[in-house]
């Protein structure tokens, strides 16, 4: 969990982002915008199978295991959108679940949350929708992976755990073996 105050941690992330070279800031923004677009496309499939209604009846059972789903990309998405990231509540199964469901907007929701279609949802999908979901999932995962290959704290989730291990001030620490070549991304 972030040490001290959540707002202080967010300020630290903003300050560290501002210190990055502009070309790297733009690279990250591009990745995060693409993530947002693919996630909205996946959510359209979720809505097409009445996901909202089904999950409401279920009561969000899968969110009980969402504690470690947030990633660096999701946090950056919230900051780029100038949205006010909801304050995590670590007394709940997922720190971002509210009384009426998820507090995170679709573009900034964790990868696991967006791509998980349980059997109740999957059973309602057509073969064409499944193919579309697989294609969007592949493209989405590639964007998360590109960020994860560059920064030690990034991945498909586990931001809190990783920062606990690395130290909370190492948010944009590069992987030592990663050679930066912006032209090839
Ligand atoms: S995805 Fe499935 S398990 Fe998760 S909240 Fe929706 S219906 Fe429930
Ligand atoms: S981030 Fe949202 S969708 Fe994901 S587990 Fe938490 S409440 Fe559920």
Number of strands: 2
Largest sheet: 2 strands, antiparallel
Class of secondary structure makeup:
mainly alpha
Percentage of β-strand residues = under 5%
Report Rg.
Answer: 17 Å
Low-pLDDT parts are: none
Order of helices and strands: HHHHEEHHHH
Number of helices: 8
Measure the end-to-end span: 32 Å
Question: How do the strands line up in the largest sheet?
Answer: 1-2
Identify every distinct bound molecule in the structure, by name, code or SMILES. Answer: iron/sulfur cluster
Helix content: 40-55%
Q: Estimate the global geometry from the Cα principal axes.
A: globular
Query: In total, how many domains does the architecture comprise?
Result: 1
Q: Provide mean pLDDT, rounded.
A: 90
Architecture overview:
By secondary structure, the chain is mainly α. It has one domain. The chain has eight helices and two strands, in the order ααααββαααα. The chain has a two-stranded antiparallel sheet with strand order 1-2. Helix 2 crosses helix 4 and helix 2 packs antiparallel against helix 7. The radius of gyration is 17 Å and the shape is globular. The mean pLDDT is 90. Bound molecules: iron/sulfur cluster (SF4) (2 copies).
Furnish the topology, listing elements before pairings.
Blueprint: H1 6-19, H2 22-48, H3 51-58, H4 72-80, E1 97-98, E2 101-102, H5 111-115, H6 119-122, H7 127-150, H8 159-166
Antiparallel strand pairs: 1-2
Helix pairs in contact: 2-4, 2-7
One iron/sulfur cluster is lined by residues 54-55, 58, 60-62, 116, 118, 120-121.
Task: Name the descriptors.
185 residues, 2% strand, two-stranded antiparallel sheet, 8 helices, binds iron/sulfur cluster, mainly alpha
């Amino acid at each position: 969990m972030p040490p001290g105050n959540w707002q202080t941690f967010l300020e630290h992330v903003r300050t560290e982002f501002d210190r990055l070279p502009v070309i790297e800031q733009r690279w990250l923004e591009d990745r995060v915008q693409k993530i947002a677009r693919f996630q909205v496309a996946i959510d359209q499939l979720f809505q097409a199978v009445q996901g909202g209604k089904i999950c409401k009846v279920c009561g969000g059972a899968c969110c009980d295991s969402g504690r470690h789903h947030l990633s660096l990309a999701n946090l950056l998405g919230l900051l780029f959108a100038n949205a006010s990231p909801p304050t995590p509540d670590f007394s709940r199964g997922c720190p971002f679940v509210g009384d009426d469901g998820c507090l995170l907007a679709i573009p900034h929701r964790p990868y696991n949350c967006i791509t998980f279609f349980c059997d109740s949802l999957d059973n309602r999908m057509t073969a064409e929708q499944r193919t579309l979901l697989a294609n969007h999932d592949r493209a989405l995962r590639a964007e998360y992976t590109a960020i994860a290959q560059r920064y030690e704290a990034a991945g498909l989730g586990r931001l809190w755990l990783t920062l606990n291990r690395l130290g909370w001030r190492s948010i944009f620490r590069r992987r030592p073996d990663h050679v930066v070549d912006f032209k090839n991304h």
